[in-house]
Write a structure and sequence with these properties.
The chain is an alpha/beta fold. The protein is built from twelve helices and 13 strands. The strands form three sheets. A seven-stranded mixed sheet has the order 2-8-7-6-5-3-4, sandwiched between helices. Strands 9-10-13-12 form a four-stranded antiparallel sheet. Helix 1 runs antiparallel to helix 9, helix 2 runs parallel beside helix 9 and helix 3 packs across helix 8. The longest helix is centred in the last third of the chain and has 24 residues. It is globular. The structure holds pyridoxal-5'-phosphate. Pyridoxal-5'-phosphate binds next to helix 3.
């Protein structure tokens, strides 16, 4: 018998991250991965550096101090917070814990690609539920959730569409899903949302043991390189995650930087204000160019191209790259006529708009 992985593993297309290099450009403008253009908080950077003398020590496997700080910051119960090596790890663990061969994992058709990948690696079947106007269709998700469904994944706001559901709509989803289904609410971009009917999911977790919220330090806190995320769940689901995760899944530098980042409210506020201002400007300018920027509650904009000879999204992607500007092609998300552009610094955002203006002319 030959060495073979479990059925389905070799069908998984590995996640491809945003490009980081453009030939001929030593420092390309990187707007392909929804990173924080202002970087990490200076306090987080200092905490990270200070840890270099302690690298021979194992981290605190229970992430006690960080969980307490997160709980205090958000008004949550620290015992029900579980930290992870990025929220990606927690999403994978949740899906693996609750779904396996023969089970279905539902996600919104243009949702974050890690959901179908995590489902496949667990041996489960990912099911893409069609959207309405590039927004998750609650009734469609509720109608499709059946006996085989184990997990429903929903990013809110969603990457890459930027769409966002209200707290009321999320409540309706929770009420409409069967009792045996876990709802994974991925609030990676929660801190950027400006609308006042938003609910990150914490309240729903408090009122239903079938809901889990995941969060990340990769976006507003600018710590994507350190890999740090957290989940808020019922005591039962938190217990499951704690059994599944590695004993030291979060590194000591990530714990230290995360703690400093969460305490630096000014940096988070600056990042949020910067994003609000330049996201609005970017949408205005690209709309004036005849492109179709979707509304967004995240730190990125999905930009639809009108098409026509030489004016399609694929040509624009290559055109921008040729000018040292990296954005994300959307074909893997089933949106081949779109690009996703992260809001960068003022200089970066102006540069991408100037390059697009040249492209459309
Ligand atoms: C919706 C969504 N969830 C989760 C993640 C992953 O975050 P992390 O860096 O914490 O693994 C991303 C990253 O882009 C995302 O867009």
């Amino acid at each position: 018998m030959s060495l073979t992985p479990r059925p389905g593993i070799l069908d998984v297309a590995p996640y491809a991250g945003g490009e980081a290099e453009a030939p001929g450009f030593a420092a390309p403008i990187r707007l392909a991965s929804n990173e924080n253009p202002l970087g990490a908080s200076p306090r987080a950077q200092a905490a990270y550096k200070a840890l270099s003398a302690e690298l021979h020590r194992y981290p605190d496997g229970g992430a006690e101090e960080l969980r307490r700080a997160i709980a205090e910051h958000h008004g949550l119960d620290p015992a029900r917070i579980v930290c992870g090596n990025g929220s990606d790890e927690l999403i994978s663990l949740l899906i693996r814990a609750y779904a396996g061969p023969g089970d279905e994992v539902l996600y919104s058709a243009h949702g974050f690609l890690m959901y179908p990948i995590a489902a496949r690696t667990a041996g489960a079947t990912p099911v893409a539920v069609p959207e309405r106007d590039l927004t998750a269709d609650l009734d469609g998700l509720i109608a499709r959730a059946g006996l085989r469904t184990r997990v429903v994944c929903l990013a809110n706001p969603n990457n890459p569409t930027g769409s966002c559901l209200s707290g009321r709509e999320l409540e309706r989803l929770v009420a409409g899903l069967p009792d045996h289904v876990l709802l994974l609410l991925d609030a990676a971009y929660a801190e950027y949302v400006m609308r006042n009917d938003y609910e990150d999911g914490a309240k729903l977790v408090e009122s239903s043991s079938r809901v889990v919220m995941t969060r990340t330090f990769s976006k507003i806190h600018g710590l994507a390189g350190l890999r740090l995320g957290w989940a808020y769940a019922s005591a039962e689901v938190a217990d499951v995650l704690n059994r599944m995760r590695g004993p030291f899944n979060v590194t000591a530098p990530a714990l230290a930087a995360g703690l400093a980042a969460i305490e630096d409210r000014d940096h988070a506020a600056r990042s949020r204000d910067h994003n609000a201002r330049w996201l609005q400007w970017f949408r205005q300018e690209t709309s004036a160019l005849g492109l179709d920027p979707r509304p967004s509650d995240g730190n990125f904009v999905l930009l639809r191209f009108p098409g026509g000879t030489g004016r399609d999204a694929g040509t624009a992607l290559a055109w921008l790259k040729g000018r040292g500007i990296l954005v994300r092609g959307m074909a893997p998300y089933g949106l081949p006529d779109c690009l996703r552009v992260t809001i960068g610094t003022e200089t970066e955002t102006r540069a991408v708009v100037a390059a697009l203006a040249e492209f459309v002319s």
